[in-house]
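Hey, weird one. I pasted the LRR receptor-like kinase family protein sequence into the form twice and got a warning about non-standard characters only the second time. First submission, copied straight from the form history:
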Amino acid sequence: MVVSQMHKLINFRQIRKERKEISALLERLTSTIWLEELSAATDSFAIDNAIGVGKMGMMYQGNLPNGQLLAVKRLLNSQLFKRQFLSEATILCKYRHKNIVPLFGFCIEGNDRLLAYPYMSNGRLSKWLHPLKSEVVRLKWPQRANIALGIARGLSWLHDLHTVHFNICSQSILLDENFEPKISNFGEAKFMNPNIEDDLGIMFKVNDGKTKKDVYDFGSVLFELITGETYNELTRSCTRTNICGDPSNFYNAIDKSLTGEGFENEVCALLKIACECVKPLPDQRPTMLEVYNNISNVKKGRHGYSDDFDALRGSSEIVSSNSTNEIIEL
């Protein structure tokens, strides 16, 4: 009883200390874009310009006088999401990569906390994988494979810089006008054992093994690109253990729009890679660099799966994609 109370007291003090440090770091940040500019760009955050809502706040479409289109995230509760705002503003100001969503600017003014990004015209990946009944446009396989490669490239680059995303899913992937994927939603991201002297590196430190959480989440997105469902959705009703050990278990779940187009062997190869990513033990999973190289080799035709699709089809069982849940874009 006494030990439990001591642990609670220590945790409370650690949380309070972290909150003070986060507040101090926020005070050191200087806005890179003014609230007045973002208010004008969004018509005073008019509801007609709202394009989404998430746990952190509202997202608005904005238009600067020079014609630049923006997506502006306005936090609903600046006190509750201090850490997430600090993490996203710091990481996106620090890093630039073709598969990481660029940060146009951020604003800290009074109680307002805002993040502004270039507007991504094709929206979230989840919208394309789960279209409404009235939407008949679907992603072709070459686009899906390129999206998988881009996400893997971005994550591999982040891990090389000792950063873990911790929230990879189809809703955190944005698509530009060329369907190039951009990893977004860095509110939960952390640094891995960084050799960084500043307070931010110390506060958000996490051990190296946590990169395999991103690998698992990427595998789930890869399943979604191939079947339309995440790995957890595919296996939720299955009682068999180690289902990821045999890719043939997922043949019946492959999106029917992907068959008969001449890409069957490539689909099969990426299905095998997805199975490797969701292995139950983190040490069994590949690194994101290995995943990126494997997908790159598949796209270049250098893989050993050329005759596997017929075998996979012949031994398929268990899992099929028949979800009827409607997914609404946030």
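That's the output from the first submission. The warning seems to come from a hidden character in my clipboard, not from the data itself. Residues 145 and 299 are 8 Å apart (CA to CA).
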